[in-house]
Amino acid sequence: MQKDLLTLMELDSKDVAEILSIAETMKGRSGRGGKSSSKSKGEHRYRLNMERLKDKVFVMIFQKPSTRTRVSFDVAIRELGGYAITLNASDIQLSRGESIEDTARTLSRYADAIGARVYAHNDVERLARAADVPVINMLSDLYHPCQILGDLLTIKEVKGKLAGLTVAWVGDGNNVCNSLIIGSTLTGMIMKVACPKDYEPLQDAVNFAREHNGYVEIMEDPKDAVRDADVVYTDSFVSMGKEAEREERLRVFLPRYQVNDDLIAMAKSDAIFMHCLPAKRGEEVTDSVIDGPYSVVWQQAENRLHAQKALLYMMLTSAETRRGRGMKRVSRTRSG
């Protein structure tokens, strides 16, 4: 497993399967949350040594507001026996001109991992390049990898599998859509993205899918995407940082790209509806859909916690292994 998680492209199919398997085990042991409705069975094949994460420190930097990311990561590291330190950008010297690189080098001396929720993806890339410890993208303008790990866990729970399922994305080809294209490719799902012209997903994500034998199709008509889909997914038409475009975006997206009863009825009868939240009810989705029988959004929100616990476990134990190997190499060099 690579040191950092910035887009999901850092993972391969085996990494994703491992994270989901660990997440299933951790969720089964947690005793929290609502009904799983899980069709997937089986314990993770490795015994998890939870003591390995005791007293680990995870520092989180927030440029953007957060509910699910902040709380789920905080609870995740605490349930693993570690500690979370939460910093708003205004709390630290970044707000007074200290460079991202100097911040990364400093935090690397205090923490075992760093998470960042940023406006510009370049900021988290700079943080990762300069840091000696793992860096997790907790959301940027281009990607949202942690959201997708929770989403994949949810789909697997409900459907019992991932490979071969069709996911219909309706609306803005945003950061969540970009990472979902990558996640679908890594798990063998088919992805159909319906979005207006000039609101397509990032070409880098589409290229990744095509270079790794993934199936992604971009179209304008949401009916073509949703027809016979196993999963219907949408997100806010006006993402954080795009508020100045609100009036124009609503004009472009409504009413055609709203997920309502008529649209979701075109999916399979056992399809599920997903939304990463927060939802703008009455815009991208109606109350009748998000509160209706198709919806798994609260299960989806809970699974952010379990997937992120698994991610932290994988990344921190991998980092520990890398450090151990590095110390052995240094020792051999000195003794030689």
Fold and architecture overview:
Helix 1 (13-30) packs across helix 12 (297-335) and helix 2 (68-79) packs across helix 12. The protein is globular, with a radius of gyration of 20 Å. With 336 residues, it is of the alpha/beta class. It contains twelve helices and nine strands. The protein has a five-stranded parallel sheet. It has helices at residues 13-30, 68-79, 100-108, 121-130, 145-159, 175-187, 203-211, 222-226, 246-253, 261-264, 287-290, 297-335; strands at residues 57-62, 83-88, 113-117, 135-139, 166-170, 190-194, 215-219, 231-234, 272-275. It folds into two domains: 13-143 and 304-320, Aspartate/ornithine carbamoyltransferase (Rossmann fold, 3-Layer(aba) Sandwich), CATH 3.40.50.1370; 147-298, 3-Layer(aba) Sandwich (Rossmann fold).
